[in-house]
Design goal:
about 160 residues; alpha+beta; two-stranded antiparallel ribbon; two-stranded antiparallel sheet; 6 helices; globular; membrane; iron ion binding; iron
Length: about 160
């Protein structure tokens, strides 16, 4: 059993979950309307009421934000000292602001608990490398791995789950 206090101690597990959501956002894009003129730089302005598409997929892989290895899976991207150096809106797995996903707080807790239980009881392996993964849209806004779930599961010695 995991208590809320136990979940708060799963720091590296949370970093793994965040890095997974960074590279593989479930919803890779979102639409928004500009509520005021937004100056991007001296030559570009998004006018008030313009409809905008924000690509979380692109934002989360921007080398200007995430460094030269932005496409590499690295949970240490979420070490506190690294996260503190980034803009708060550089990581938006559930959007942000007044129109963010209502279930985002609920989503993190079961994600961390499930990953902790699985990692404690099983070894999860895949032969696919990051370079081999192909992502595709499912429907309009859901992102998934085109090759499907290619994972081998081995029970750890002494594990009581699955028996």
């Amino acid at each position: 059993e995991f208590s809320l206090e136990d979940c708060n101690k799963l720091t590296y597990t949370e970093m793994v979950c965040k890095e997974t959501m960074r590279l593989f956002p479930v919803g890779p894009i979102i639409g928004r309307r500009a509520t005021a003129d937004v100056r991007l730089d001296e030559n570009h302005i998004i006018p008030q009421n313009a409809q905008c598409i924000i690509s979380f997929y692109q934002l989360h892989r921007d080398p200007d934000v995430w460094g030269p290895n932005a496409d590499r899976f690295d949970p240490e991207n979420f070490l506190p000292e690294k996260a503190d150096q980034r803009h708060p809106y550089s990581f938006l797995p559930f959007s942000a602001g007044s129109r963010n996903c209502l279930g985002y707080r609920y989503a993190w807790l079961p994600m961390k608990i499930m990953l902790a239980y699985l990692a404690r009881s099983y070894r999860l392996k895949t032969s696919l490398t990051m370079d081999q993964l192909t992502l595709q849209n499912y429907g309009i806004i859901i992102l998934r791995i085109a090759q499907g779930c290619q994972v081998t599961v081995e029970q750890r010695e002494g594990s009581k789950l699955g028996r």
